[in-house]
Amino acid sequence: MKKVLLLTRRERVEKYADFSEIPQDWKLVYLDSVYTDGQALRAGRDADFIVVDAVSPVSRRLIEAMPNLRVIHSEGVGYNAIDTRAAREAGVYVCNNASLNSGAVAEQAILLMLALLRRLLEGDSLVRSGRQGQAKNRFIMDGIPELSACHVGIVGFGNIGRATAERLSAFGPKISYYSRHRLAGEEERRIGAGYLPIGELLAACDIVSLHLPATPETTNFADREFFERMKPTALFINTARGEIADQKALARALETGAIAGAGLDTLSPEPVTPDNPLLNLSEACRYRVVFSPHIGGTTDGVFRRMHRNIWKNLKKAAAGERPDNVVNGL
Does residue 327 fall inside a structural domain? Predict the structure, then answer.
């Protein structure tokens, strides 16, 4: 028998896991996605596996106090809240669901781009208040931009960045990307994106979409200098992680007009706190920011694929095999 400590919402597991694929003699212990180390140890000190919400922590203390632990599996793609070094030292695999949500997150990024370009929130508000004609005329006279006329820059060109570029190509914009490792020329031509150094990309693009993983090196990657190098008419999109963008710097850029708007599926910290500067912008910025509640990679199809992968991986580990998608170097 194996024991699985589930540090995520029980209703998600029950909705998306195929229980016919989980060995009947396995014991599942549910705790939820908000917990202390003490609560986790009381519930599952002897667990063989942990399945954890992608933004919930697994600390060194927890890892070192669980002698049977063999795998920590993120429920999503993110794993930056897991102490991967402690897990590696303990011989514990850390796995994620890389690439399984790429298309869904790409859709969310494009949704945020279009919502800002077409002034969706402002238009909705004006129509609801009986001012449809006023809104229509104002938007026409201001000039309504088309995505096809934009130059879109993608910062980070892993699975999600590439999926975003591939889906954007149907809209017809010019697409550039920045990554630490440039693709081969034939791959760039296949995707329809050209490489630019980060400084050139920020200066040239009408939309900058962030698709970096959350690591110590990328924390506050989008800082005050980053936003100051963007065009004052440009839009910033973040469907990656909130901590990659300096929240205060982004708020300042919006307030001062250093950039024109932001579409944000992620904030930092999460769940968002009332004092986040992006929730306390002036009335002048009311329609310059579009929020979504970190749902880019949480579609029905994504969760079914992710849970299928999680239980397949845990069964591989239980059989003495190396699981897939190991992210901590074991």
Answer: no
